């Protein structure tokens, strides 16, 4: 007996296949994607399930086949087996087997950046910035206008469910947006870990891809991604690349979105920020995009401890290899090592050359 997989149904339905190595990917949802450029339906080849975080349609192999063909689910097995030439019941998937639903504890696939940006923008508009956080940002060299434009806010200390309800009432999607999840009462809420500054991580178009949190009063992992991974109907954050500035001929490459915002504010230069020198997964894609916009030269500006930290040095060597492969001119910005970061140095010296 042969086992039918969702990949077999994908072939029959002539749906797009994922890129090599991907086990979860998106296609156009036939229920809610009116724009042919949008793709919200997630197909998971490992679990043999699908789900659209936008409209909620979900199910297993026979449900997917029924969704696209209009054939009743009760007749889907017969139609699939005939088209595939399967003789007898398919192992693991016979006509008596129920729908394969996603468990409530499963994470939602991440929603597209347009939806995330709209939800995060609305969320931040409902929050305020505490005076101690504003003073901290001003001391780094940011102006009040910079702080407002960047969208920094203090983490809310209560009312997470109220915020979620308000956002839903305004028509914003919470599923597939890192930080949102369903609590024990099955109500949408926003995560809260520690008090700190919420930092929008933006793409080249200024859209908020995700949020980072600069935690108060911690010595380790001061900067953390806002994520609801592991929570009911939660969603994990990804290592997004932050881009600030519009002059794409030359850019400074550093670590962390807040540092990038400060360097840009103090110099006017375009700055690209990775989550860490060893977190380069998404950088190549962003650099490819910026190269088409005229980016030719990159100056790296990582904290000075990379010179003596072998773990950081290994990641830095991999970064330089990537830049060389992509054909960029590149160099290293060095400064007085008593100042840990380039932002600290520029702020102290009030100059940049």
Backbone CA Rg: 24 Å
| The CATH fourth-level homologous superfamily of the largest domain | DNA primase, catalytic core, N-terminal domain
In terms of quaternary structure, the protein is single chain
Q: What is the approximate shape?
A: globular
Give the strand tally. Answer: 15
Q: In percent, how much strand structure appears in the residues?
A: 15-25%
Number of DSSP helical runs? 11
CATH architecture descriptor of the largest domain = Alpha-Beta Complex
Low-pLDDT ranges: 88-105
Q: Which whole number gives the mean pLDDT?
A: 84
Class by SSE composition: alpha+beta
Count of distinct structural domains: 3
Helical content, roughly?
25-40%
Q: What are the main properties of this structure?
A:
353 residues, DNA Primase, Chain A, DNA primase DNAg catalytic core, N-terminal domain, Dna Topoisomerase Vi A Subunit, Chain: A, domain 2, 3 domains, 5-stranded mixed beta sheet, 4-stranded antiparallel beta sheet, 11 helices, globular
């Amino acid at each position: 007996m042969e086992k039918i997989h969702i990949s077999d149904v994908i072939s029959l339905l002539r749906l797009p296949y994922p890129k090599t190595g991907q086990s979860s990917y998106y296609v156009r949802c036939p229920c809610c994607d009116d724009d042919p450029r949008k793709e919200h339906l997630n197909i998971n080849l490992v679990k043999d399930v699908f789900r659209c975080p936008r409209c909620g349609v979900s199910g297993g192999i026979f449900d997917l086949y029924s969704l696209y063909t209009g054939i009743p689910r009760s007749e889907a097995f017969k139609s699939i087996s005939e088209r595939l030439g399967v003789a007898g019941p398919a192992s693991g998937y016979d006509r008596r087997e129920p729908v394969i639903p996603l468990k409530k504890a499963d994470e939602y696939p991440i929603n597209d950046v347009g939806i995330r940006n709209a939800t995060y923008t609305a969320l931040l508009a409902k929050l305020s910035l505490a005076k101690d956080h504003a003073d901290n940002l001003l001391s780094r060299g940011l102006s009040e206008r910079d702080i407002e434009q960047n969208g920094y806010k203090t983490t809310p200390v209560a009312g997470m469910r109220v915020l979620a309800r308000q956002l839903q009432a305004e028509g914003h999607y919470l599923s597939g947006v890192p930080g949102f999840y369903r609590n024990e009462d099955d109500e949408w809420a926003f995560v809260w870990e520690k008090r700190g500054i919420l930092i929008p991580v933006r793409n080249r178009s200024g859209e908020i891809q995700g949020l980072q949190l600069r935690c108060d009063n911690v010595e380790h992992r001061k900067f953390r991604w806002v994520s609801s991974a592991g929570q009911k109907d939660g969603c994990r954050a990804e290592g997004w690349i932050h881009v600030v500035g519009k002059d794409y001929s030359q850019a400074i490459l550093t670590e962390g979105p807040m540092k990038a915002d400060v360097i840009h504010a103090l110099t006017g230069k375009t700055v690209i920020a990775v989550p860490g020198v060893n977190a380069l997964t998404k950088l190549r894609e962003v650099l490819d995009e910026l190269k088409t916009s005229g980016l030719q030269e990159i100056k790296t500006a990582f904290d000075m401890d990379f010179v003596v930290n072998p773990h950081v040095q290994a990641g830095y060597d991999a970064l330089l290899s990537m830049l060389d492969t992509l054909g960029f001119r590149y160099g290293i910005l060095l400064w007085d090592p008593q100042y840990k970061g380039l932002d600290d140095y520029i702020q102290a010296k009030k100059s940049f050359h």
